[in-house]
Design goal:
There is one protein chain. About 5% of the residues have low confidence. This protein has eleven helices and 15 strands. Helix 5 packs parallel to helix 6 and helix 6 packs antiparallel against helix 11. The relative contact order is 0.10. The protein is an alpha/beta fold. The strands form three sheets. A ten-stranded mixed beta sheet has the order 8-5-4-9-10-15-14-11-12-13, with helices on both faces. It has a three-stranded antiparallel beta sheet with strand order 1-3-2, covered by helices on one side. A two-stranded antiparallel sheet has the order 6-7.
Amino acid sequence: MTDKLVTLAIRTYHRAQKIKAVLTNNGIPTEIHNLNQENPELAVGVRVRIKESDLPRALKIVESVEKEWESDTTEKPQKTVLIPVDLADMVDKTIDYGFQLASDIGASVDILYAYHIPAYTITSNNDLNTYSITDNEMLRRIVNRANADIDNLKNLIQRKIDSNEIPAISFEFILKQGVPDEIIPDYVKKSKPDLIVMGTRGRRPNNELIGSVAAEVIETSSTPVMAIPAISTSTELKRIAFLTNFDQKDLIAIDKAIELFGKHNPELFFVHASDKNNAWNEVMLEGIKSYFKNHYPGINTNYSIIASNDSPETIEDFLQANKIDLLAFNTRKRLFLSRLFNPGLAYKLVLNTNTMLFATHI
């Protein structure tokens, strides 16, 4: 054997660093190639290279340690934050929050863009409509435009990373053909992200069909969803309100939200909506407040009772009066017919509030 360098393994940056450390400790000189020097944490396909004469011993060492790492239950799979985008003006805000939250929980980011190819096009001439089947040329233009939009967004994200506007974390684009209200829930079901961050309005802020995509994701997904209104003015999460019905699962949901947003040291408002003036409601809210005060002594807590949990206007009045930055609530997955004929609170809130929403599904 000669002492030329050979590639022992191709791994992510962090795994390559671990392999290099183990081999160096065992007296095997190791080099890492194909590294993104400006942003090494974003690098994939990093080559671990050693002398050819060290190859037999290095293979045994790496096989042994990687087997231990894979069986180590403390090493969790990579978390992911999914950011569905429609490339509207508010994409900046969605990207900013999505990347920051991904950094908070140690996750990478998947950016999902769904583009639609119509089966036919309509042209009008003197009140006469002509229907034409989408041809290959139009298909090519649509696909090229979608790819160009993605390239522009990639450049925007890289500029934000380079200027330290957002954390430098790994991100990937997923381009899917189809309508968003079908593509997004299907992708979520298959990929199971740890968090979804999305806008509640698209290119046409007054179009309910656009806002309903976010509502559909909230009401069908088992993944927590953070929904950001296009005209939201919040830049910090200093005041968080929780809608609670005194369900045991609410406590778990609130714990999950505090785990995610706790680093902002927010003030908490526990809110129960009821049409009845019941003294027991006061007792239950006080109990919830005491529970979280004991478990999170550094967080200031409040509680309130408002009328009718079926009125988004009443909830919105409370949010505005108390300058709430984020409204959190727990919701259940709902069947299609139920959502169609009886829109839930999530749907109403998405279309009526200017406050950011955080929905869990416990």
